[in-house]
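> forwarded from #structure-qc
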């Protein structure tokens, strides 16, 4: 059990940050070398940055405030490029709302090279984005280091986005040592019985099936947690806690018997 706790702690604190770096690099290479160029987002203390590609042209959008999980942006600046690197114009707006395949900008100033600044009460930009695509364009929880998750969760919540998947990932990593210790106790239930009594094959099959069932049930509980039908903390810790209780109860029952 102590070795399992140590392995779980190393997995959470060391292996996860390393794997997060490789997963993030994989996503970057996939976006570079495939024809599909999804929107990308970044969030920080200065607000939200969003990059969208429309008909080969690039728009880089910066917003200092976000409402309705990306459907409404406040204090918006849009840098528009023809192709990838030819600057076309800059648009400043007090507010931008995403609706029907376009950004609807309010209280707008448009600056183009060599031309006077133009003011508009209303201006539109074509987009293929939806609020869900904006949210999904953030780095997946699996690509964020365990040590960076708390700060990223705070940034998302301060910006007006839901951080439930990131919270679930964080608590899953925290519960990893307990889950491995619980699996060790369950393994002891099926392996410490004297084989002279027979039934070794049945014990082996039962052990494998138990591990499989716990894996499936864990994923089911995690999915329920992501759907907000169960608190993410409970969803993340329930598999480890239930496995630990079952393992202890079964082991004590066999030892007492």
């Amino acid at each position: 059990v102590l070795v399992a706790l140590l392995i779980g702690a190393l997995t959470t604190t060391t292996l996860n940050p390393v794997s997060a770096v490789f997963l993030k690099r994989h996503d970057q290479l996939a976006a570079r070398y495939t024809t599909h160029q999804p929107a990308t987002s970044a969030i920080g203390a200065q607000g939200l940055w969003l990059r969208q590609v429309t008909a080969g042209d690039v728009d880089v959008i910066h917003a200092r405030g976000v409402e309705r999980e990306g459907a409404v942006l406040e204090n918006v600046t849009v840098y528009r490029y023809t192709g990838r690197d030819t600057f076309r114009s800059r648009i400043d707006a007090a507010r931008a709302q995403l609706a029907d395949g376009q950004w609807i900008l309010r209280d707008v100033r448009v600056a183009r090279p060599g031309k006077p600044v133009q003011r508009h009460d209303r201006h539109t930009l074509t987009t293929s984005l939806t609020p869900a695509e904006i949210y999904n364009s953030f780095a997946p929880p699996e690509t964020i280091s365990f040590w960076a998750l708390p700060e990223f969760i705070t940034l998302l919540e301060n910006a007006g986005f839901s951080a439930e998947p990131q919270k679930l990932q964080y608590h899953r990593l925290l519960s990893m040592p307990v889950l491995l210790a619980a699996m060790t106790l369950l393994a002891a239930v099926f392996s410490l019985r004297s084989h002279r009594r027979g039934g070794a094959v049945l014990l082996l099959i039962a052990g494998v099936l138990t591990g499989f069932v716990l894996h499936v049930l864990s994923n089911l509980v995690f999915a329920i947690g992501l759907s907000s039908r169960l608190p993410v903390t409970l969803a993340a810790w329930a598999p480890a806690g239930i496995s630990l209780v079952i393992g202890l109860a079964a082991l004590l029952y066999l030892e007492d018997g």
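QC bot note: The CA atoms of residues 185 and 247 lie 5 Å apart. The longest helix spans residues 2-33.
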